[in-house]
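$ ./design --mode recover --in tokens.txt
reading tokens...
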């Protein structure tokens, strides 16, 4: 199979779909890999590295899209990229379609086979291709919050961990999955006072056993979230419904109860955000203010640490990329039900139920497309 890797074009997105090491694995398996010129240069992965791994260098994204049978990316395709997709071409990347009707329509119109990293499943209901970026984003959320609490950034002028004799900041984390757990690690490490809210009591018990009296755990009710947000200096939104739009758990009225200069970080913004007041931002302009509360809602947070993110992501995405290239998408999905869960749009049809429901579109089961 001919596999193509275009350069990412989203604002401040420096990650790349395949590393030279991943290219080498595909080439050794007998595949042809075409990489757009300078696709990885920003993170120290040079064209010469790709050529040494066996790739061919293409002068433009148009050349990659025109030639490749499978496109491997990181972020969702922008509309000009969707327009270059062709019928039956495989697109393998993050999609986050539930909050993006424009992209969904464009992918349907292309006729391509669109596989989303974020809905491919693993054992025990895990999301192994989403996990690496969730780990990065969770840790970055605390860094971002600590930075924007500084007075020069418009914050309250608080040091997240305080100092002896001065109380630390109160960090509330809504959601105790991968994002929330990694945000928790960072917040505790920086000596903040931390409250974790989730509806999974078993997960709260696990965290209580790990951290003991270093944290407070609360079951997720509207009343509990309202009370915690009102006393918070920082709120991290870390809620995920696989493939679906994020629920708006923190309302505008709750935001109004926070003190001026407090910070909220909505890591769920790719799926529409879990704060009513959220809207996507970029690394160029990462924040905005609502009712004197600073909102950090960057939709590609891990792009800021692009080299770490690319290496971590490739560790998770390469096995499925090899399966798709070796077996073709239909056979690979027949053999692997977890990979089949990644099929979101296929030959003009929406094949992931949560996306269809969120956007009010007809749903076609993925199994139907494999017949």
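writing sequence...
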């Amino acid at each position: 199979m001919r596999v193509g890797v275009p350069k990412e074009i989203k604002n401040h997105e420096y990650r790349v779909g395949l590393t030279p090491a991943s290219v080498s694995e595909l080439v050794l398996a007998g595949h042809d890999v075409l990489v757009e010129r300078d696709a990885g240069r920003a993170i120290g992965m040079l064209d010469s590295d790709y050529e040494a791994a066996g790739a061919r260098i293409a002068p433009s994204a148009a050349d990659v899209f025109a030639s490749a049978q499978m496109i491997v990316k990181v972020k969702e395709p922008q509309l000009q990229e969707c327009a270059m997709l062709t019928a039956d071409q495989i697109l393998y990347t993050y999609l986050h379609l539930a909050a993006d009707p424009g992209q969904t329509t464009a992918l349907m119109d292309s006729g391509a086979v669109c596989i989303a990293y974020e809905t491919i499943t693993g054992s025990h209901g895990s999301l192994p291709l989403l996990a690496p970026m969730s780990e990065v984003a969770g840790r970055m959320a605390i860094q971002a919050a600590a930075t924007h609490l500084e007075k020069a950034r418009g914050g309250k002028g608080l040091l997240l961990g305080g100092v002896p004799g001065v109380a630390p900041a109160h960090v509330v984390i809504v959601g105790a999955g991968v994002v929330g757990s990694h945000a928790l690690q960072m917040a505790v490490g920086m000596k903040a006072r931390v409250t974790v809210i989730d509806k999974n009591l078993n997960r709260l018990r696990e965290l209580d056993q790990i951290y003991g009296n270093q944290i407070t755990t609360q079951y997720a009710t509207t009343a509990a979230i309202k009370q915690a947000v009102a006393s918070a200096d920082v709120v991290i939104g870390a809620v995920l419904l696989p493939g679906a739009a994020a629920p708006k758990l923190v309302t505008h009225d709750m935001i109004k109860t926070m003190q001026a200069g407090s910070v909220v970080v909505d890591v769920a913004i790719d799926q529409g955000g879990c704060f009513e007041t959220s809207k996507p931002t970029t690394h160029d302009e990462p924040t905005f203010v609502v009712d004197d509360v600073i909102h950090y809602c960057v939709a590609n947070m891990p792009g800021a640490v692009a080299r770490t993110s690319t290496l971590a992501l490739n560790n998770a995405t390469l096995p499925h990329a090899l399966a798709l290239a070796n077996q073709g998408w239909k056979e690979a999905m027949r053999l692997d039900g977890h990979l089949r869960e990644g099929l979101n749009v296929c030959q003009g049809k929406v094949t992931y139920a949560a996306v269809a429901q969120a956007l009010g579109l007809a749903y076609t089961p993925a199994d139907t497309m494999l017949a």
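exit 0
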